[in-house]
Amino acid sequence: MIALQITSMKNFMNHLLVADTFDPFLLEEATVSTALTVTIDGHINKDFYPAEERSADCIPWELQSWSKIKGLCFDLIKGKHTPLYFKFVLHMQPDKAATMLTKAQVDPDVIRALVLNIRYDGEKTVLTTGCAYQVFTMDKSADTAWDKALKKYLDLKGISYEEL
After folding, report:
1. Distance between CA 109 and CA 135 in Å, rounded?
2. Is 62 helix (H, G, I), strand (E, B) or coil?
3. What does the DSSP 8-state code read for residue 155?
4. pLDDT over 80 at 162, yes or no
5. Distance between CA atoms of residues 69 and 54, nearest Å
6. What is the SS3 assignment for 75-144?
7. Which residues partner with 113 through β-bridges?
């Protein structure tokens, strides 16, 4: 697990809410506090859809893709006042996580999710990584691989940060 403080907020917010930078992620939870506090549960309510639209082909994950929900989050944040607080809990899409872990020679079956927490406290934005494991293990190679992959990805996308 690592914590990275974003050093260019405007650039980062563009990547988060406008560009496709975080589209390979799914939303577990979002909380945005402005004049009101809005919390979004990213778990998909499959019962909302007709039976023929509930298959894995139509709804491949348990969580909503970030690309489908980021516009709503953008609408909650935009305005002339800076938000008081926001938090997004994102998971890398399982197929992309499995590919990344396999390349790092880590068994993807032991990992339930590669998690990215994004938290703004009114002054700074901090990204924190985490791995949700399927089983207990002392091996932290998945954490190390995820930390390295995220830093490499941020560097590739031109998102500046300082490691805390």
Report:
1. 9
2. coil
3. H
4. yes
5. 19
6. HHHCCCCCCCEEEEEEEECHHHHHHHHHHCCCCHHHEEEEEEEEEECCCCEEEEEEEEECCCCCCCHHHH
7. 132
Which among 87, 75, 95 is positioned nearest to 39, based on CA atoms? 87
How many CB atoms are located within 10 Å of the residue 21 CB? 19
pTM over 0.70: yes
CA–CA dist 87, 42 (Å, integer): 13
pLDDT (tens digit per residue) in 45-81: 888 888 878 777 677 888 999 999 999 999 999 988 9
Under a CB-based contact definition with an 8 Å cutoff, are residues 29 and 88 in contact? yes
Q: 105 and 76 in contact (C-beta within 8 Å)?
A: no
What is the residue type of 149?
A
